[in-house]
Design goal:
By secondary structure, the chain is of the alpha/beta class. It folds into two domains: 261 residues, Rossmann fold, CATH 3.40.50; 143 residues, Nitrogenase molybdenum iron protein domain (Rossmann fold, 3-Layer(aba) Sandwich), CATH 3.40.50. 27% of the residues lie in helices and 16% in strands. The chain contains 13 helices and 16 strands. Strands 10, 11, 12, 13, 14, 15 and 16 form a seven-stranded mixed β-sheet that branches. A five-stranded parallel β-sheet has the order 7-6-5-8-9, sandwiched between helices. The chain has a four-stranded mixed β-sheet with strand order 1-2-3-4, with no helix packed on it. Helix 8 packs parallel to helix 13. The N and C termini lie far apart (59 Å). The relative contact order is 0.11.
């Protein structure tokens, strides 16, 4: 399926007939899913588990085997299960009887500073196959319309693997930026790994191979970073762009990615069940941290940043994932820079503010220094950092490889436990680091 057709339905009586045709007629093509192939489509899309429930008036909301509306009734609520972002700030959703209104707000620079920092806001109308498209006026003027349940999509930022795995929609994944996992991470994403290994997932690239994207022909493409030229070329292909990025959220806001993705597959019930369990464990641990922190004279500090070959250090502004994680773990992030993006500071400032920090989390994607001495050999001035000298330096590659960037943004209860065990070792003395890894001592 692709964009819902932008034609008006002329009469209510005609709407019912068109709904039947759109969701499968006597020709056996599957109607709206007639372009489905082995990579997925309407026929493969998961159904709403509450299809057939009745609304408050006792009217049955019938969805057919493709998850489509078989007999449209404007007074029926077709969404028995709903999600809402309680912690996330980058998206919101409103449910009408027969469509969902999704809004997203993301910094288009994301992790790529060259794209330029600017906020991109979008509105999407998600309409079940077989239901009429609402009039796109007022707040819906200019909205992108998508037919649901969707059949295929491309994860252009390679950031939604965990949500894909938990919602069991790996068969819908037809493209990604790159294979962002290997043998170490694959056991924690078995369905996604199997899908990728089958050759059914095209490598689109961060700099977007437009030919490969066109060949993948997804119902929609997700990404968080890029410039107007890139987005414009994707739009010219007729592929809707859904802007989304979990790493500008708080930990629980990032975990709500499973809710976000569920909107396109009518899997809200499954998403709520997954998230609620994570939230409960997270909040229980956070309560323990708060009680423990109240007994301390001073909160522990964690230095955040990655040193390069030059004189600058790349760090995170205070509304990004890592600074919020540190605060949730009862610590104080250093430096404290307002904003939701990536910041560059001088090495001199980094050393000055972080010299007495209790811990240092090196934010490099793929660590090039495995020991304390290797850090000092690369930059002797780092000897001024107490956390490096004391063996309290960490990076984002743990015992599960780069799973920090995969399941780490969903299993945030485990991520919080990692941070708490570093900042308050006496609170979780038996915890083994999962997503975060310790830099080895030189001794």
């Amino acid at each position: 399926m692709r964009l819902a057709q932008r034609t008006s339905w002329l009469a209510a009586g005609l709407a019912a007939g068109l709904a039947l045709a759109a969701c499968g007629g006597d020709d056996g093509t599957g109607g709206a899913g007639s372009d489905d192939d082995a990579t997925g489509g309407a026929a493969d899309a998961p159904m709403n588990s509450d299809a057939g429930d009745t609304d408050a008036n006792g009217t049955v909301a019938v969805l057919d085997d493709n998850g489509c509306v078989a007999h449209f009734d404007a007074d029926v609520d077709y969404f028995a299960d709903k999600v809402e972002p309680v912690y996330a700030n980058g998206w919101s959703v409103r449910y009408e009887n027969s469509y969902k209104v999704l809004t997203t707000r993301v910094d288009a620079a994301g992790g790529h500073a060259a794209a330029g920092s600017r906020v991109v806001e979008n509105t999407y109308v998600l309409v079940p196959c077989g239901a009429p498209e609402p009039e796109l006026t007022g707040e819906l003027d200019g909205a992108t319309v998508l037919e649901i349940p969707t059949g295929t999509f491309v994860d252009g930022g390679s950031v939604l693997y965990a949500a894909v795995e938990r919602l069991d929609v790996a068969d819908a994944l037809v493209g990604h930026a790159e294979v962002f996992f290997g043998d170490t991470e694959a056991p924690y994403l078995p369905k996604v790994a199997e899908r990728v290994d089958s050759g059914a997932v095209a490598e689109i690239g961060y700099e977007v191979n437009f030919e490969a994207l066109a060949d993948a022909d997804p119902d929609f493409y997700t990404n968080y970073a890029g410039d107007d030229s890139m987005f414009g070329q994707i739009t010219q292909l007729g592929i809707p762009i859904v802007h989304y990025f979990p790493y500008t959220e708080s930990p629980l806001g990032a975990a709500e990615q499973v809710k976000f993705l569920s909107l396109f597959f009518n899997l809200e019930a499954e998403a709520n069940a997954e998230f609620d369990a994570i939230e409960e464990r997270y909040l229980d641990l956070r309560e323990q941290v708060e009680q423990h922190a109240s007994t301390l004279d001073e909160a522990p500090t964690m230095l955040l940043g990655v040193t390069g070959d030059g004189s600058d250090v790349t760090t995170r502004e205070n509304r990004r994932f890592e600074p919020q994680l540190v605060r949730e773990a009862g610590g104080v992030p250093i430096p404290d820079i307002d904003g939701g993006g990536i910041a560059t500071i001088s090495l001199e400032r980094f050393l000055d503010e972080g010299s007495s920090a209790d811990a240092w989390l090196d934010l490099t994607f793929f660590p090039s220094h495995e020991t304390q001495q290797e850090y000092l050999d690369a930059e002797p001035h780092l000897a001024e950092l107490r956390p490096l000298n004391d063996g309290h330096t960490y990076h984002r590659m743990g015992q599960r490889g780069v799973d920090y960037f995969l399941n780490g943004a969903l299993d945030v209860d485990l991520m919080l436990a990692d941070a708490v065990s570093i900042l308050h070792p006496d609170l979780l003395p038996d915890h083994e680091l999962t997503f975060i890894g310790a830099v080895a001592s030189s001794e």
